[in-house]
Design goal:
46% of the residues lie in helices and 13% in strands. The chain has 321 residues and is α/β, with parallel strands linked by helices. It has two domains: 38 residues, no CATH class; 260 residues, TIM Barrel (Alpha-Beta Barrel), CATH 3.20.20. The chain has an eight-stranded parallel barrel with strand order 1-2-3-4-5-6-7-8, surrounded by six helices. β1, α4 and β2 form a beta-alpha-beta unit.
Length: 321
C-alpha cells in the first residue's frame, strides 16, 4: 500500500468516527493522528546519527575487512596533536622508542585530540583518528612493558605497538597486561587479564561511562566488542622464525614489520636485499593464515597500492604523502 493510500484510509477512519460516542471519537482520533504523523514523516527526513559499531575507527574498518592507513609522530605539541585529530588517516602513533619517554606529553596529546567539532558532526564519540603509541621497551624486556602498558591505556590510548616481539610467550604476556580480568560470565577468558583498574582519564578521553569503558577496553578481535589493538613488531631473525606462533596468540590485532630498519640488520643484509622482501612475504603469509591484519611501515605513496593488492591491511606512510 502506498503512503497516499494509507493517508486516505486514515481519513476514511476519521469519517466513521462520527457515529461513535464522544469519548470513543476523541481516543480514536488521537490514534489516527499519531498514525498520520508516522506515515507523513519520510524515512531519513529526521536527522538520526547512529553510533558506530566501534569507537576505535581503526577497529571499525578492520572489522569490516577494510585496510587502514596511518602515520607516526614524535611531536606531542598542542598544535601537532590538534592537527593529528583531523588528518585523513585512520590511526596515528606516537613513537617514543628512539626519543624521550614523555608520558606527560602523551597524556597531553591524547587530551588535545578530543575534537568537539568532530563529535558534533558525527553525532557520536568516535574520533577521526585512533591514537596508538610505541615505547622504548622491547617485547623481550618482559617486566619493562608491564607498567608502561598500564599507564598508557589509563591515559586513553586505543592501541599499543610493541617493538621486537620474538616469541609467543612474550606476546601472550603483553596481551594479558592489556586486558582486565574477565567477569565469570565472559566468553573471552583467555589469556587471563592482569590490568589493574584506574581508567578515569581514559573514560574522559573516550567520552563514555566507566562501565562502558570497562566493557569495551578489551582486545579486538579476541573480544568482538573490544576497542584496543595489540600490535607486535617483527624486527629480529628470531621473531621472523616464530611469526606464526606470535600471530596465533589470541588478542593480537595486527602485526607490524620493521624490515626497512631493524630486521635487515638482524638478517645481516642490506635494506634493499631480496632477503628482506622474502621476510616481508613470510610475515604476510602468517598474518593471512591467522586472519590478522598485517602492517607495513616506511613506504611511500607510490608503493601503497601495490602493498594493498598483496593483502597488507595496515599501512604506515608519511603525513604529506
Amino acid at each position: 500500500m502506498t503512503k497516499v493510500n494509507l493517508v486516505l484510509s486514515c481519513l476514511l477512519s476519521l469519517r466513521r468516527l462520527a457515529a461513535r460516542s464522544l469519548g470513543q471519537r476523541v481516543m480514536a482520533a488521537v490514534i489516527v493522528f499519531v498514525a498520520l504523523l508516522v506515515l507523513l514523516v519520510a524515512p531519513g527526513s529526521v536527522p538520526a546519527q547512529q553510533a558506530p559499531l566501534h569507537l576505535n575507527p581503526a577497529v571499525e574498518k578492520l572489522a569490516h575487512g577494510q585496510s587502514i592507513i596511518g602515520t607516526q609522530t614524535d611531536d606531542m605539541s598542542l598544535q601537532n596533536c590538534h592537527s593529528l585529530a583531523r588528518l585523513d588517516f585512520d590511526y596515528a602513533y606516537v613513537d617514543m622508542e628512539h626519543g624521550p619517554l614523555n608520558l606527560d606529553g602523551l597524556a597531553y596529546c591524547i587530551a588535545a585530540m578530543v575534537d568537539k567539532a568532530t563529535i558534533l558532526k558525527k553525532g557520536n564519540a568516535q574520533p577521526n583518528v585512533a591514537l596508538f603509541a610505541r615505547f622504548p621497551a622491547y617485547g623481550r624486556d618482559l617486566e619493562s612493558n608491564d607498567w608502561i602498558v598500564k599507564q598508557a591505556l589509563d591515559m586513553g590510548l586505543m592501541g599499543i605497538i610493541f617493538n621486537g616481539v620474538d616469541n609467543k610467550e612474550q606476546m601472550t604476556r603483553l596481551v594479558r597486561y592489556m586486558r582486565y580480568p574477565q567477569q565469570k560470565t565472559s566468553k573471552y577468558q583467555q589469556p587471563p587479564g592482569l590490568r589493574g583498574s584506574g581508567p578515569e582519564n581514559a573514560v574522559f578521553a573516550w567520552g563514555v561511562s566507566a562501565a562502558e569503558y570497562e566493557r569495551h577496553a578489551d582486545l579486538w578481535p579476541l573480544n568482538p566488542e573490544g576497542e584496543l589493538l595489540a600490535i607486535p613488531m617483527i624486527e629480529t631473525a628470531e621473531g621472523l622464525k616464530n611469526v606464526n606462533e606470535i600471530a596465533s596468540v589470541p588478542g593480537v590485532g595486527a602485526i607490524f614489520i620493521g624490515a626497512a630498519s631493524d630486521l635487515h640488520h638482524y638478517l645481516g643484509v642490506p635494506q634493499d636485499s631480496p632477503e628482506v622482501e622474502a621476510a616481508r612475504q613470510t610475515i604476510l603469509a602468517a598474518c593471512k593464515a591467522h586472519n590478522v591484519a598485517c602492517g607495513i611501515t616506511e613506504i611511500g605513496k607510490a608503493e601503497v597500492e601495490k602493498r594493498l593488492q598483496e593483502g597488507w591491511k595496515m599501512i604506515r606512510t608519511g603525513r604529506g604523502e
